[in-house]
Specification:
Layout: E1 22-25, E2 35-45, E3 51-52, E4 56-69, E5 93-104, E6 113-118, H1 126-131, H2 149-152, E7 156-160, E8 175-176, E9 181-182, E10 185-186, E11 188-195, E12 201-205, E13 225-229, E14 237-238, E15 244-245, E16 247-250, E17 253-256, E18 260-267, E19 272-280, H3 287-301, E20 316-322, H4 324-334, E21 349-353, E22 391-392, E23 399-400, E24 413-419, H5 420-425, E25 447-452, H6 479-494, E26 513-515, E27 537-540, H7 545-548, E28 557-561, E29 565-567, H8 582-585, E30 589-592, E31 605-608, H9 613-619, H10 626-629, H11 633-650, H12 658-674
Parallel strand pairs: 6-7, 6-20, 20-21, 21-24, 24-25
Antiparallel strand pairs: 1-2, 2-4, 3-4, 4-5, 5-7, 5-8, 9-10, 11-19, 12-18, 13-14, 13-19, 15-18, 16-17, 22-23, 26-29, 27-28, 30-31
Helix pairs in contact: 11-12
Length: about 675
Amino acid sequence: MRRLCSGAGHWSAQYFKGWFVVSVFLLLSAAEAEVVRIDVHSKSDIAGGRTYGLAGPYERLLGRVYFEVDPRNTINESIIDIQYAPLNGFGRVEFSSDFYLIKPKDVEVGNGTVLVDVMNRGRKRVLHYYNFALAQLEPESEMDMGDGFLLDRGFSLLYVGWQFDVPRQKGLMRAYTPVATESGSTIRGLVRSDFVVQELVHDHSLGDRGHVPYQAADPNDPRNVLTVRDTASGNRMVVGRDQWQFGRLEDGRMVADPTSVYLSGGFEPQKIYEVVFVSEDPPIAGLGLAAMRDFVSRLKYGSADPLSVPAGSINRAIAFGDSQSGRYLRTFLRDGFNEDERHRKVFDGLIAHTGSNARGSFNHRFAQPSRAVDRSYFYPGDQFPFSDVAQIDPVTGLKDGLLEGLNPETIPKVFYTNSSTEYWRLPTALIHTSVDGARDVQHAETSRIYLFAGTQHVPAQLPRVRPQSLHIGNPNDYRWFLRSLLVSMNGWIIDPGILPPPSRYPRIADGTLVPLEQVQFPNIRGIVLPRDVSRAYRLDYGSQFEADGIISREPPGILSVFPFLVPQVDDSGNELAGLQSPDLAVPLATYTGWNPYSPIASQGSYIPFPRTQSEREKGGDVRLPIDSRYENRQHYLGLVTEAALALIKQGYLLGGDLPLILENAGRHWDFLVTDGQ
């Protein structure tokens, strides 16, 4: 049986216009990695030539990398539809990807590790997470480098396009892969697109959030169906075929468009619309995973002269992916892509951040990699297995694990890191519980699991304004943990005897992981726990899906639901287990991973404690007020210091970050207590 992953891709390749192109051809031999050519389109200094740490000045290079893979190599069997790819004269499959490299000018004085940013929908994010920088599409300036954390430590940073359908916007990076054909004939199949609008509109793209959509092959095909329902699990009502068509509103009239759907009466807000239609020319999506595999392998095991990367100058690789790209890494691992065509380990370490329990729509026919498992409904993602170690699904009887069947020599070190939001928006607990949710299970010795307690999906700064939701967004920043854990990961790779700090996550055995209805959230006036959470289901995509990656049943049949467990909280509403930041260990507020009525599913809540006993009584708040917890600002900061030093000693924080952590805590006190008086 084939091991499915996630992915998708095709569409015509386009060169960047107006760039000076340096084309470098690399000879291909049987002994070489599968990078056959690197085109460098642009090369420039980072931060105007500023020196970073011992690595010195940095430079950036961007361009296009070209690949060839052998479809007969058993390593490539997990690439869905690889047997239907066009072949060149050598019997190989050709494809390419955008790339962006930030490295020391003399890469040999770097730390020997390349940190690969597995881009989320074509966007570069690793500098935001580790350098506290604003996310930029083409980071180059000193400001774009944030506080320089990664560069000061000598990391090279690599970005490789892997997703075919990202919006056609300058600065976004993509893969360019061929379409599958069967004996030269066009392949057709079912595609599904669902969406929810916030205001009445008459048309909507068949793509997700601006991504390149599939096209309706035949607008009149009787298999094309539009339905509407109120909830994800609600009954679908078929919309009459005379009421809708494939088109868009333009200058007050409908014009035909095979990439959009038009409804004569308009799409109602908050209802779930779903179009199932016949499309054609499926991209060979899994080549996006092969692109990552082969470029990283080339940097580790060969040389890249056009990039000024001599052989041996980069000998370690760590991948970081967040949210969608965290799910990509779980797929990459599960489907065996961490072993290259010559059976060598690709990534030495993976940091699958906020990837929850899921994989994604990354490597099957007519894949839609942009689809989120909680914002879109019933797309491939929440698929067994969820945990490292093999388990038996009590419903299906299948036995499997995320690492099951992989070459032990190519299994990397893995950190699964999640915010609280992942436990509330998805059944993240499945990565460390039995499939029936009855008991805790152990992860692999090569893995660690960390919950960043009391945090939201994307780190936020101290709030100044209230968004369109019930509560202010959660400012409990977990990036301090990510910095320290990256250093630990790199050290663990260099010396396997230097273990990273132990896993920290909620468990069934000690009562810190419970069913939703058992959460003992304090009685705070006007605060209601969310009940409409995103469940994970066993789904039936048709008889060809598991073996061949072909979805023949759209929408899929719902077979049964997986259990849903969340972290338990204390009498202040803060989570008991996981990694508690100094903000959470010495709290001024309740920090949650959920926010009722938020239009942003990834947003958490920030519910400040009452400042005084009188405020507490006036507001009917059961939580202890701030003036009963801390004598003054100095006392508060002293306790924060103690909490931070304990985390530093345990290896969860870096000592060098202590001044910044205390500065942040001081601002928080002033925002809430001093400025609020």
